[in-house]
Design a protein that fits this description.
single chain; mainly alpha; Muramoyl-pentapeptide Carboxypeptidase, domain 1; 2 domains; elongated; Peptidoglycan binding-like domain-containing protein; PGBDSf; PGBD-like_sf
Length: about 210
């Protein structure tokens, strides 16, 4: 066994990172800050882990404890990692101008459609990959609000503005609640979609209509 002082620096920071990740899927496990110092929170997390794993509760990180924490971390990582982000624009110069048709516009139009449920100024345009009509007007509206040239062309800067807007108004955390930056109704409740679409998937037999 090695004393706690031997873990100061990067190894203990790695230990804390693993324990912090495990705390997201193990209720009751303390969530240490990866600061490289084996403090009380880290000690308690180690002891709680040893208890839950049926190991001797020593509070010391010997080889067996380290290997057990590392194995649990590797097993838990896929379930706690955030979803993989999508790259809708493959290069800096990629753009879709008004009147053009592009499969990537389906994603853009779907995001605008969702935003139209909580922002009255956004039109509920069809998701058809064709950048015309309401699709162009929505892009121009967004560009104006973001301080970008109002060209109606969907390009990287406009995409970045759209994703930020989506995060602010529609992002939901792992508990299904609106994120803290989401808009609130005057009564303090969460924003309710105007079009009757649900926040969460319906059970079989449900309908959005």
């Amino acid at each position: 066994m090695r004393p706690e002082r031997d873990y100061l620096g990067l190894p203990i920071r790695s230990l804390q990172t693993m324990l912090r990740t495990l705390s997201r899927c193990a209720p009751g496990l303390p969530c240490p800050i990866p600061d490289g110092v084996f403090g009380e929170v880290t000690l308690e997390a180690v002891m709680r882990f040893q208890q839950s794993a049926g190991m001797p509760i020593t509070g010391r990180v010997d080889n067996d404890t380290w290997d057990a924490i590392a194995a649990a971390y590797r097993s838990a990582l896929p379930s706690v990692m955030p979803p993989r982000p999508v790259r809708a624009f493959r290069e800096q110069a990629f753009e879709v101008r008004a009147g053009q048709c592009c499969v990537h516009m389906c994603l853009v139009q779907a995001m605008f459609l969702a935003l139209s449920q909580v922002i009255e100024e956004i039109e509920p345009a069809p998701v058809n990959a064709l950048h015309t009509g309401a699709s162009v007007r929505n892009v121009i509206w967004l560009q104006g609000r973001a301080g970008l040239p109002e060209t109606g062309t969907m390009e990287k800067q406009t995409w970045n503005a759209l994703t930020r807007l989506y995060d602010v108004f529609l992002y939901r955390d792992i508990h299904g609640a609106l994120c803290p930056t989401a808009p609130q109704t005057p009564s303090g409740g969460s924003v309710i979609p105007r079009g009757g679409f649900p926040w969460e998937p319906f059970e079989p037999g449900g309908s959005c209509l």
